[in-house]
Amino acid sequence: MTMNRRDFLKVGAGASGSLMLSLSLPGCSGMPTGYKEETGEWKPDAWLEITNTDDIHFTLARVEMGQGTYTGLTTLIAEELEVDPEAITPRFAPVASEYRNPLYKLQLTGGSTSISTSWEPLRTAGASARQMLIMAAARVWNVDADKCTARQGRVFHPNGLDSLRYGQLVELASKEVIRGDVALKPASEWKYIGKQRGRLDARAKSTGTAVYGIDVELPGMVYTVVSRPPQYGGRVKAFNESEVRAMRGVLDVFEIERGVAIVADKYWSARKAQNALKVEWDNSDAFSLSTSEVFVSYRKAADKDRGKSERSEGDYEGAVKKAGKVFEAEYSQPYLAHSTLEPMNATAWYKGDSIEVWAPTQAPDLGRIAAARVTDLSPGDVTIHTTFLGGGFGRRLTQDFIEEAAAVAYRVKKPVKLIWSREEDTQHDLYRPAMLHRMQASLEADQLTGWHHQIVGPQLLDWYVRNAAPAQYPWAPKFMYDTLGKVGLLAEGIATPKDMSAIEGAIEYPYNVENLDVRHTHTDPGVPVTFWRSVGYSHNGFAVETFMDELAHETGEDPYQFRRKLLKGQPRHLDVLDRAVRMAGWDTPVPEGRGRGIALFKSFGTFVAQVVEAGIEKGAIKVYKVACAVDCGQVVNPRIVEDQIEGGIIFGLTAALYGEISFEGGKVQQSNFHDVQLMRQYERPEVTVDIVPSTESPTGVGEPGVPPVIPALGNALFALTGKRQRTLPLKADA
């Protein structure tokens, strides 16, 4: 195809409507197919759209819950497309197989994988678009495309003077074909990647124009609240339906699978009616243990079964027999709530042959399965509109709130908004599991010769597979959903990925010890659990790095030097360890009344070392400083890395100081922020973050700040008081 400039201008002047360029991302299956009326699904690959009016839209396949995907992923596209990131408008992706996270084969945001899985595909998409636009302009000018350049949304003629806007070129560019691989820009030419820039969602969030799930408003919308059994597994036996139905503003009262739903014209009318609701619960099959009984069951399980071997090197039993000393310790961690500042919510509108759902979900394809479960619809009849999320931390990977909203909407046939109260959000969360760790080490003089770690507790897949398995096969009839879940569990580690949630961080033990034995004793008392920020790394980090500190004390060595000598052949571990120590002034005297503690942990491919300086003031633990070194490979936006690492530190300190969900007779004892406390602004320590310059592929930063800060704080308190704490949360008077 050739076209002179005059003919091109004629075409451009006569064009109308929105011309667009859709791009297929490498690594994703299929080509753009447009909207399919017969299924109600639009199935492009992750795609870029450029209109003839120079509007640029980027479909964001990962959700934005504060972690920075809105900015980071857009930056990758912008860099190669040669436009300012602010010139691009991101929009959240619909449910489509092309948007699945390649690591999990599900359309979810989690595991600190957004940047790492998008690093090459999104840059390639931007580069491909740029190249096609350049090729189109070269045909207009009848010049060599290699001599044309692109910058700031325009293609420039080899003479450096003439240029064409991207919008003028989209129709012609859509006809171009790139043969072979497209070249990506070298790092020396990057304008945006690696640079400190503001967040693209900052203005919308600071002006209140960003739409979170709880902000959704629809014409004729009604409100619902759900009363759930106080013990997990309880069922409705009877309730005062007629009395509640007669209350002002109440439109309907009925039982759903998860409890009793009240529908009203206003939210507070629904809450007022809920206060008058009296439910008699059948708890014959409900969870009825107390927290102390959970740990009794863990210890019995550990005594009975040493567990499945997850990593075995050398001869640990032989090392124990030869050892001059064998040191043992047991660590325990409680159940933890997520405490997202936006409580669970969803808005659903059942329309007879379809249902639309607006929700702050981390997994929209699982949300589609959840809505289909409780209606007469198939997943293809369900449309999920993902909103901004007011915090996720893994909680919004589980879709119970969408299931409830859809069940109510199916009954009332109106747009209906479900909002959980803070108390409901706390008492009906799916928690970070309580875990028990039995540690043992063999020592010969000051040498660590053997390491044994027995992890006792549940796996998350047991609870998550219910909707995750059907989401991988959305074509399957609903009567197969439960079967798919059971098959997924049976095939774990064979046909489905191995569940690493209990053991991650323990099997990647980085220290050079000849004899290793890491085991998992799988036991599940029946408390509903799900992913929590940093997942298994959170509890294994505490056990591993606290035990390492105890071993250093047993050998009489400095905790930093003890770790350092065991990290031969681990240059990235060593680098962050040395950097954190230098920042903290490890070898300088600590101020009176304070102690320093250190911890090192790799999670989600990111290396993090932290030194915490803490003390005790007025009978309470006070954290003064946290020095953190992080190696997350190539950085896209240093400011977001710092924010996320600092956020992870605050999140981890909250868990270390206050985090605990306890059960008594199967009932959660906590309810709101007065007894599930968050770290307040005035308690915030001074945090310094040192980012290691790197050309390695980027890894995640949303979660890796959490695991090391908890043991580092505990180790600091030991340095101050001489008392070792092996149970969380940490206490000032331990």
UniProtKB/TrEMBL annotation:
Superkingdom in the source lineage: Bacteria
Residue ranges of every copy of the Aldehyde oxidase/xanthine dehydrogenase a/b hammerhead domain listed in the record: 207-285
Pfam families cross-referenced by the UniProt entry: MoCoBD_1, MoCoBD_2
PANTHER family recorded: ALDEHYDE DEHYDROGENASE
Protein name per Swiss-Prot or TrEMBL: Xanthine dehydrogenase family protein molybdopterin-binding subunit
